[in-house]
Amino acid sequence: MARILSGIQPSGTLHIANYFAMMKRMIEYQNDNELFCFIVNYHAMTSNQEGDRLRNYTLEAAMDFLALGLDPDRAYFWVQSDVPEVTELTWVLSCHTSLGLLERSHSYKDKVARGIVPNTGLFTYPVLMAADILLYQAEIVPVGRDQKQHVEITRDIAIRFNNLYGDIFTLPEPRISDDVAVIPGTDGQKMSKSYGNTIDIFEDEKSLKKKVMKIVTDSTPVEEPKNPEVCNLFALYRLFAAPDAVETMRVRYLNGSVGYGEVKKELVGLIRDYFAPFRKKREELAGDPGEVIRILAKGAEKTRAVAVTTMDRVKEVTGLKYAGK
Ligand code: TRP
In whole angstroms, what separates CA 201 from the centre of its chain? Predict the structure, then answer.
């Protein structure tokens, strides 16, 4: 029974790479762990300064998680900004974090190299993420490879803090899921909102069809052998098909008895059927945002109790709490 924590940014409509890389695993963890799962709207704010968009994506991400099976009674499920202690801790940690540590962040440097004009929030993003993790004393943090350094920075910050003040924070371990290979988007690059190549989880049937038909393949004719290992379409197919169907398809690729058109048609049906059981719940929630807001408020209250315990200790040892000692 470990304490597992991870967050997802409400930076757009959630897609099938978000699902397989993060959401599905988190929902599975709620069974045998103490799960902390949250929507990191403060992080999304580093790249989104439009109120209505941030608000809508936040609510939609919550609806997606709930529809897909996240159980707010078993897990801690909340929106990051609903627990204000996280920004308090961010400040305290900032004062214990050297500038050099943040200057070495790959993620920050990559974004700047891609031409993004950074705001201060983007630079201090790893401190906010450290506060997310340390505030709740998380033991395991499942993240993608691109976020591993952020968990290492969190550890560095925690070690320094603990050295100064005693055992305040649990040291978290990153858990990188190597078995989820990179999930390709419709253009063959990594599926990502910023590349415009996503297939959304609750895509309507018409646009699902359109997107799947658009998936880029090579132009090997139907009757020629094809290599499944380098095929985007096959990479997506294997996420949705049953293991024996995947094997059959692999053989048909190799012996040239299937064309890409046929695989695409089958894939449309597979994706639709895979998410079908969750669709009704998703529609119910969309029709009753008040209920979603109630669930999130309750989630924040439950989570906040944990946050306050850590923050009290932090205030005590750092001298922010100056009375009644
Ligand atoms: N930075 C993470 C991402 O973009 C999201 C995140 C914010 C997070 N806080 C976290 C992940 C704490 C794990 C733990 O994917």
Answer: 14
Is the pLDDT score of 141 beyond 70?
Answer: yes
More confident: 144 or 311:
311
Q: Distance between terminal CA atoms of the chain?
A: 35
The CA distance from 25 to 147, in Å, is 16
Query: With a 6 A CB cut-off, is 7 part of the ligand 1 pocket?
Result: yes
Residue 113 has pLDDT above 70, yes or no: yes
From atom 13 of ligand 1, which residue's Cα is the shortest distance away? 6
CB atoms within 10 A of CB 196: 10
- CATH superfamily of the 202-283 domain: Tyrosyl-Transfer RNA Synthetase (1.10.240.10)
Pocket of ligand 1 contains residue 129 by CB under 6 Å: yes
Distance 7 CA to ligand 1 centre (A): 5
Q: Which residues are catalytic?
A: 111, 190, 193
Query: Under 8 Å CB-to-CB from 118, ≥6 apart: which residues?
Result: 108, 111, 112
| pLDDT higher than threshold 80 for residue 180 | no
pLDDT of residue 194: 86
pTM recorded for the entire structure: 0.95
Q: Parse the chain into domains and list their residue ranges.
A: 3-182+288-318, 202-283
Please state which CATH number belongs to domain 3-182+288-318: 3.40.50.620
Virtual torsion, Cα 85, 87, 93, 98, nearest 10 deg: 170
3-182+288-318 and 202-283 share one CATH topology?
no
Nearest residue (by CA) to ligand 1, atom 6, is 7
Q: How far is the CA of 251 from the centre of ligand 1 (A)?
A: 39
Average of per-residue pLDDT values in the chain: 96
> With contact defined as beta carbons under 8 Å apart, do 208 and 272 qualify?
yes
Q: Is the pLDDT of residue 325 over 80?
A: no
